[in-house]
User: Fold this.
Amino acid sequence: MGQDGGLEPDLAPGCTCEPGRPGRAGAGALSPDPLARIAAALERLAPPAIAEADPAAETVLRWDGRRLLATEAAATVPLERFVGVDAQIAALGRNLGALKAGGEAHDMLLWGARGMGKSALIRTLAERIRLPLIEAPATELSSLPDLFARLRPAPGPFLLFIDDIAFETDRSTARALRALLDGGVTQRPAHTRLAVTSNHRHLIAREPAEAARHPGDAEHDRLALVDRFGLVLGFHEASQEAYLAMCRGYLEAEGLALDPADALAFAIARGGRSGRTAWHYRVEVLMRRG
Assistant:
């Protein structure tokens, strides 16, 4: 009751308002700033940060341009399924074995026809000897010095796998890779080797302007990068015999017999004979059987 005998309005405990004014709770119940509320809500919605993988603790990793990430090993093709590439298997196996043993080993370029098992062979052989494999996209070549900085103190060895590379007319990117292979400031660590696949042996496409240059100079430019690889292996389109042997191997593993005429008709419809076509034929036969 006030001094004049009137009644004072009821006030909530802790209320800081004056009579007749809209009140608000004390400091402990103040509403946060709207921007702070939005930031807190976004933080709750954001996925947790992915921890970077330890290269010494994993056998299959992926470089995304900023971080090393552990990844599930892709299913590999049994070595006996590779047909018509015995010399390539032997050469690549020797080189990867030397790298795994800590000896001298080449950087590798596997080039040639699509679907002939270049990438699959690298994965299969690396898994067989448990050689740590790091896959990096061809679009992230400029970030490889950061990857090398992470790998340098790790025990290794490491196989850096760059799949399906071609530079078209981007000479600056080609020069960056050449520097990594050649021993520049950003040279790859001694216990790390590159395995690169491409559908083109020269990697760099011919430019129309090259018609005005000496043909020997243009050819030298295209071969300059390829020459940095100590091991260069070609994979050519499968012969009819090799293709049928691939199909037979895939089907026999399923307990099925091969119909050569049907397999060849499938290859003609697909536009070529390759290990990938043989795999697709296997899928086609299994699908027909229901």
